[in-house]
Amino acid sequence: MEKCSFRQVAGFYQYNSRRMPGIFHQKDYKMFPPSVDWGNINWNTRKPQMDFPVQSVICSLEDVQSIKPGKVRISGYAVSGGGRGIERVDVSIDGGKTWMEATRFQKTGIPYIADGISNDKWAWVLFELTVDIPQSTEIIAKAVDSAANVQPEKVQDIWNLRGILNTSWHRVHVRIGHSNM
């Protein structure tokens, strides 16, 4: 690793402690409370959002998809900002009444450990779980990061004017019917 002088480190710190001058940081990455609407928005009252909360997404199933009853593989990804690892991903197949922990990995065949030295903290963590789905239901995924941050249950709890950082539980409705799955 290359050595840095004090002057280089001090310059880097000074640069990173200022507000970002780019157009995207001036408007696109700002979150406002529910009381703000397009008629009273003041872009200068908020700092840009430079971190993002824990989130997970189910990728193997689409919302309102028809599936055959039986074993179904649920898979997707989870990620958290600030270099925080993913401690666990919980999956529910009964609308959130009960939960099962999914298997996490970044590289096929290598278990993922949230604070493991060989895992990438700034990258997606893949998850999967195979479950028996006997009837139409709502499947939910929620992630928890290494700082114990958990996804909020409903979008209403985090709604804001621009809709950014909507990281509420990911929900997929499946119905039993004719399918190629």
Automatic annotation (TrEMBL):
Domain of life of the organism encoding this protein: Eukaryota
InterPro entries: Ig_E-set, MoCF_OxRdtse_dimer
Swiss-Prot/TrEMBL GO biological process terms: sulfur compound metabolic process
EC number: 1.8.3.1
Stretches assigned to the Moybdenum cofactor oxidoreductase dimerisation domain: 47-175
GO CC terms in record: mitochondrion
Cofactor needs: Mo-molybdopterin
Recorded GO MF terms: heme binding; molybdenum ion binding; molybdopterin cofactor binding; sulfite oxidase activity
Keyword Iron-sulfur attributed: no
Keyword terms, alphabetized: Metal-binding, Molybdenum, Oxidoreductase
Pathway connected to this protein: Energy metabolism; sulfur metabolism; Sulfur metabolism
Protein name: Sulfite oxidase
Organism of derivation: Gossypium stocksii
